[in-house]
Amino acid sequence: MSPESKKLFNIIILGVSFMFIFTAFQTCGNIAQTVITNLNNTDFHGSGYTSMSIIYGVFSASNLISPSVVAIVGPQLSMVVSGIFYSLYIAVFIQPATWAFYTASVFIGIAAAVLWTAQGNCLTVNSDGNTIGRNSGVFWALLQSSLFFGNLYIYFAWQGKTHISESDRRTVFIALTVISLVGTVLFFLIRKQEDTKAPGEEDSTNEILGDSLSAQNKMTRAVAAFKKSIKLSFTKEIMLLSVTTAYTGLELTFFSGVYGTCIGAVNRFGSEEKSLIGLSGIFIGVGEILGGGIFGLLSKNNRFGRNPVVMLGIVVHFIAFYLIFFNMPNDAPIAPMEGTDDVAYMIPSKEVAIFCSFLLGLGDSCFNTQLLSILGFLYSEDSAPAFAIFKFVQSICAAVAYFYSNYFLLQWQLLIMVVVGFFGTITFFTVEWEAAAALVARGSDYSSI
After folding, report:
1. Which keywords appear in this protein's UniProt record, sorted alphabetically (predicted)?
2. What pLDDT, on the 0 to 100 scale, is given for residue 212?
């Protein structure tokens, strides 16, 4: 197998591993608030929104140290250990206890920071300037396939159910825990960077991959990774991209947790309201997979860079927000267990609700594939710190969004995303134009990015 084939193999295994883990975790996040609402008349008094706020809050803080952790442990083992913590969080729902639920939320926040920093490094060291766009798209399409499989099961398993029984809950979460563990084991198939490099090829990001380094050298590299994270945080490009990244954190919260809760709370959907949560997740996944696949395959033939894809993403999202505003009751995100009988500006339509799910997924893939691509392109020599900053900003905004989702009506949540999304698109354009100008000045072909 050629070095290039081995690198593509690593990208595919990385994507498949994430697909299994996030089939479990994203399905868990999509149904968590609905499941918990059905538990709140017992001794359990947790909140899915609060749990997610804790996860993303800890996640954001942990990104400050995650490059150092990956530097010491190595990316492969970092992803394996992180995957185990994801599985433990999901397993808590088998027999929920409030203390275990919130404790697991803290630990998975730390694990998520390490997991995504290691993922960013693995993606970068197995790519180059010509393949980063393709590899970002391939990884994203495989990752977002997770939304399809888990939610397809939820759709059929919860068909016609208005209440989630203890047996229903345990069956779902035992299956999700096993799926998460399978994804964790698959990380062992990733070839180390030393095995994937061509003879004589050097990779500056290899700094965090040396298993044979002495403890002292590893600590030195850990400190260096932390310093690079701080230094990069104040560069013009990172600060501009942080606005775009902030938007992805807000809309991540909306499509992965809030929107499914809204659909499940609309009583006018009848006996299908709970199964529609699964169908919504499926169509979010279809949008994500379609976007990741198309933008990954077309990246090498894209003469115009990343800006048109991001423009498509914001237009698609604005259309989705407009339709959701007209279709969903304002109190849907914070409705009680009994749901809501309110009507927005039209009688709630299941078809419109599911179409909006597709648009949310498609728009999200536009932003995330291009952010992964531009970060890997601009920071090929500092991939771990750059991706740590990306996840730091994204996760802290997701934490804030999950917190206010406990209190804000739907219209205010949509308005916040519209404003931040508008400015995030402009700042992304600015960075892309500067990157293109720098390439032209060096005599490189802009389409190569």
Report:
1. Glycoprotein, Membrane, Transmembrane, Transmembrane helix
2. 47
**Buried b / exposed e along 31-61 (16+ C-beta atoms within 10 A):** bbbbbbbbbeeeeeebbbbbbbbbbbbbbbb
124 contacts 136 by C-beta, under 8 angstroms: no
Question: CA 353: distance to chain centroid?
Answer: 22
User: Vertex 185, ends 180 and 189: CA angle to 5°?
Assistant: 135
DSSP string for 319-378: HHHHHHHHHS-TTGGG--TT-B----SS---HHHHHHHHHHHHHHHHHHHHHHHHHHHHH
Note the helical H segments in 47-165. 48-62, 66-73, 75-91, 98-125, 132-157
β-partners of residue 266 are 340
Between CA 334 and CA 406, with CA 173 as vertex, the angle to 5 degrees is 15
Output DSSP code: residue 192: P
Do 1-129+136-190 and 231-448 agree at the fold level? yes
Helices (H), 379-409: 383-404
- Spell out the residues 6+ positions from residue 425 whose beta carbon is closer than 8 angstroms to its own: 244, 247, 310, 311, 313, 314
386-429 pLDDT per residue, tens: 877 888 888 889 888 988 888 889 999 999 999 999 999 999 99
For the chain, the first-to-last Cα distance in angstroms comes to 26
CATH class of domain segment(s) 1-129+136-190: mainly alpha
266 three-state secondary structure: strand
How far is Cα 98 from Cα 95, in angstroms, rounded to an integer? 10
Question: pTM of the predicted model, to two decimals?
Answer: 0.72
Structure tokens at 64: 């400050």
Domain 231-448, CATH 1.20.1250.20 — does that match? yes
Q: Which residues of the chain have pLDDT under 70?
A: 1, 29-34, 37-42, 129, 160-165, 193-219, 221-222, 225, 271-274, 296-304, 337, 382, 384, 438-449
- Other C-beta atoms closer than 10 Å to the C-beta of 248 total 23
Domain boundaries, the chain: 1-129+136-190, 231-448
- Round to whole Å and give the CA distance between 391 and 300: 26
- What tokens appear for 171 in the block? 């069956």
Among residues 336, 347, 409, which one has the least CA distance to residue 33?
336
Alpha-carbon gap, residue 47 to 342, rounded angstroms: 23
Distance from C-alpha of 355 to C-alpha of 269, rounded to nearest angstrom: 15
Q: What CA–CA distance (Å, rounded) separates 78 from 27? A: 23
